[in-house]
Amino acid sequence: MNDGIKYGKGLFETIKVVDCKPVYLEDHIERLENSMNFLGMNTKNIRENIKAEIENIDLDTDCLRIMVLDNNGDYDLFINTRNTDYSNQKYTKGLKLKVLNQLRDKNNPLVYHKTNNYLLNDYLHKELLKEGFDEGIFLNQDGNVTEGTYTNLFFIQENTFITPPVADGMLPGIFRKKLIEFLKINGYNIIEKSIKLSDLQSMDCCFATNSLMEMRFVRQIDEIMFSKSNLFCEISEKLMNEY
After folding, report:
1. For 190-193, which contacts have Cβ atoms below 8 Å and span 24 or more sequence positions?
2. Handedness of CA 211, 13, 90, 83 (dihedral sign)
3. Backbone φ and ψ of 241, nearest 5°
């Protein structure tokens, strides 16, 4: 029994599929490859093998999942597809978030990689759904906002986009990276800085991002309510037009 099974030593990527084409595929493979190097896994021919397998998969879907498991330093590759439910009404009217009691440890090196050690995130997300929430927010040991169980977070304050820095303890999302690049290229104010829980009261708008749902408006974090600002709507429309 190898370390991929015994310890969950492996990684995965979930990739949006539009018109039978994986979106930001090269970025996802690059992150996967970097994380494999971090875990000491052989990356020989990983790009070629992924692309070869994708060629033989029916991509009439909206999500592609790539997983690698450690096999004595080498890797076993698994690729499958599934359909998501991000288009339903709750994502249109806005997400309801809850601040979690569990802390995100910024000193844990694994939080910066999309490892198969995702059981806590999955468990907490399912518990949140039972409570009537859509997502949760992790704080780190300094009391700074980090990320959700499956999303990165952005805020808008007086026409400035603000997102927590990766160093506060989070997975550097692919869509997060692309959105930051998009905002900078198009002349919007975007800063990465630590955000205290008390800072949320002064934010005009909040939205969550990941590669599958892209950017979704957050209407509420605990008792704090947010408005869907014109700037959020403007950026959403511009990104949709880019596709």
Report:
1. 190/160, 190/161, 190/162, 190/163, 191/160, 191/161, 191/162, 191/163, 192/162, 192/163, 192/164, 192/165, 192/166, 193/162, 193/164, 193/165
2. positive
3. -65, -30
List of residues 6+ apart from 237 with CB closer than 8 A: none
Q: At 139, is the secondary structure helix, strand, or coil? A: strand
Are 122 and 136 in contact, with CB atoms under 8 Å apart? Answer: no
Lookup result for tokens 């090196």 = 109
Q: Which pLDDT tens digits describe the chain residue by residue (243 residues)?
A: 788 888 889 999 999 999 999 999 999 999 999 999 999 999 999 999 999 999 999 999 999 999 999 998 899 999 999 988 776 666 678 999 999 999 999 999 999 999 999 999 999 999 999 999 999 999 999 999 999 999 999 999 999 999 999 999 999 999 999 999 999 999 999 999 999 999 999 999 999 999 999 999 999 999 999 998 899 989 988 887 775
d(CA 9, CA 116): 7
Tell the residue number behind the tokens 């692919």, with chain if given.
174
Taken as a whole, the chain contains a residue count of 243
Q: Are 178 and 24 in contact (CB under 8 A)?
A: yes
* 169 secondary structure, DSSP code: T
